[in-house]
């Protein structure tokens, strides 16, 4: 009987060793595949991204607005809507977020800004105009958060997110939808504009529901008061039909 237990223990140890070796092999393959094989932009490429020009698309004619020059209400509203703890979280690394989520029983926190910028920066490598699979996205997100400051990530989001109507960035979006400069946008227009990155489709019928939800997020974050929120929701949604066209109310 003792011999049987000794053999069983040795067999279990061998199987455990083989299992660990298999897991290590899978992990090594994942690191190689997503780190080197599929051609994601490297940390060196990310570090060499221009600090004054476009980061994702080679368009020197497109003006980049420094994050500090974006009106505070719009800047903070985008954070409240997409990633409320963008600056407060001790890390933006999605792998750490997943581990914390599994350990605490809560899902990862919203990461709309870093996810959007990750999808944008993949264009630094030729052939990456297609959608990345979830593992590649997570792997590349942690590379982006290691390579770029939070201010720079937010700046890329504000300047290069596609908002529909051929507009990349909030300045172009303000002109395309309202014919206004960023500094002239009203609260309801700020709220509408910051929803466009999630819903840029030109075929979508515009209404006030997503705008009002964004206003609620702004109010919850303390960016606007109750009266301001009520007034903003009561305003008709005036969208510019085309450059030079007169704005008209959209049915609510």
What's the structural blueprint in terms of helices and strands?
Elements: H1 2-37, H2 43-47, H3 72-82, H4 94-104, H5 112-121, H6 134-147, H7 150-160, H8 170-178, H9 187-194, H10 209-220, H11 226-234, E1 237-239, E2 248-250
Antiparallel strand pairs: 1-2
Total domains:
3
Instruction: State the helicity in percent bands.
Output: 40-55%
Q: Evaluate the radius of gyration.
A: 23 Å
Structural class label: mainly alpha
Query: How far apart are the first and last residues' alpha carbons, in Å?
Result: 80 Å
Poorly predicted parts: 20-30
Please give the largest β-sheet.
2 strands, antiparallel
Helical segment tally?
11
Morphology: globular
Strand order of the largest sheet: 1-2
Q: How confident is the prediction overall: mean pLDDT?
A: 79
Instruction: State the order of secondary-structure elements, H for helix, E for strand.
Output: HHHHHHHHHHHEE
Approximate strand percentage: under 5%
The number of distinct β-strands equals 2
Task: Please characterize this protein's 3D structure.
The protein has three domains: 1-37; 40-161, no CATH class; 163-252, Biosynthetic peptidoglycan transglycosylase-like (Penicillin binding protein transpeptidase fold). Strands 1-2 form a two-stranded antiparallel sheet. It is globular, with a radius of gyration of 23 Å. The longest helix has 36 residues, at 2-37. It has helices spanning 2-37, 43-47, 72-82, 94-104, 112-121, 134-147, 150-160, 170-178, 187-194, 209-220, 226-234, and strands at residues 237-239, 248-250. The protein has 252 residues and is mainly α. Strand 1 (237-239) and strand 2 (248-250) form a beta hairpin. It starts with a helix and ends with a strand.
């Amino acid at each position: 009987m003792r011999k049987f237990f000794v053999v069983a223990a040795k067999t279990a140890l061998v199987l455990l060793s083989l299992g660990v070796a298999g897991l290590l092999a899978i992990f090594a393959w994942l690191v190689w595949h997503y780190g080197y094989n599929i051609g994601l932009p490297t940390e060196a490429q990310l570090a060499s991204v221009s600090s004054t020009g476009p980061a994702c698309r080679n368009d020197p004619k497109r003006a980049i607005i420094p994050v500090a020059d974006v009106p505070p209400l719009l800047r903070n509203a985008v954070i409240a809507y997409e990633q409320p703890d963008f600056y407060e979280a001790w890390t933006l690394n999605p792998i750490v977020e997943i581990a914390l989520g599994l350990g605490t029983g809560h899902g990862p926190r919203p990461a709309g800004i870093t996810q959007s910028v990750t999808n944008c920066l993949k264009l630094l490598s030729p052939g990456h105009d297609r959608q990345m699979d979830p593992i590649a996205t997570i792997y590349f997100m942690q590379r982006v958060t290691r390579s770029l400051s939070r201010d720079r990530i937010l700046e890329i989001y504000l300047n290069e997110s596609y908002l529909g109507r051929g507009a990349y960035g909030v300045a172009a979006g303000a002109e395309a939808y309202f014919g206004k400069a960023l500094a002239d946008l009203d609260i309801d227009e700020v709220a509408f504009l910051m929803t466009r990155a999630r819903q840029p489709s030109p075929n979508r019928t515009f209404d006030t529901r997503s705008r009002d939800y964004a206003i609620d997020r702004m109010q919850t974050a303390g960016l606007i008061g109750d009266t301001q929120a009520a007034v903003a929701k009561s305003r008709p949604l005036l969208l510019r039909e085309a450059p030079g066209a007169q704005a008209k109310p959209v049915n609510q």
